[in-house]
Amino acid sequence: MTRLNMINQCFCGESCEEILSSLEHLATQVQEKWVIDAITSMKSANPLGLKIFLRTIREGRSKNIEQCLETEYIAISNLIAGKISKNYYEGARPMLIDKDKKPQWVPSKLEDVTEEMVAKCFSRSFTEDDDWLPLQLPTKTSGTHVGASKL
């Protein structure tokens, strides 16, 4: 089996849990460093972040670049605002402040991240908050600048 076939087989899963399970199963069949690295990376990453990333990638397949940028802006704005979790800042704490390299993700497991939590990350409700501006992509004729946080 080629590496591309292995990647396609593992990453065609519908959920992060299925992808991780496929990688773990593959690791019992082949001795490939990239498989172990992928498992290690997924297990140490922010579980909510993994699910947000997977949804963004999957939905982005059917969107144009402007729609993708708007979706990513909404998700990252909600994460930075801490409306769903404080994991955005927890990612920096163990690397830059305490230097213990042991983030305490909440929730700590993929299976504890609900679809409702992920959906909230894509909510446009942050635009009702005075601290955040909606994304405004420049047009060729308007010269409008991209909206950004006032923080």
Automatic annotation (TrEMBL):
InterPro entries, alphabetized: ECH_dom, HIBYL-CoA-H
Key words, A-Z: Hydrolase, Isomerase
Superkingdom to which the source organism belongs: Eukaryota
Pfam families reported for this sequence: ECH_2
Keyword Repeat on entry: no
EC number: 3.1.2.4
Gene3D superfamilies assigned: 2-enoyl-CoA Hydratase, Chain A, domain 1
The Enoyl-CoA hydratase/isomerase domain, residue ranges: 3-122
One GO term (biological process): L-valine catabolic process
The family this protein is said to belong to: Belongs to the enoyl-CoA hydratase/isomerase family.
Protein name per the record: 3-hydroxyisobutyryl-CoA hydrolase
Record lineage: Eukaryota, Viridiplantae, Streptophyta, Embryophyta, Tracheophyta
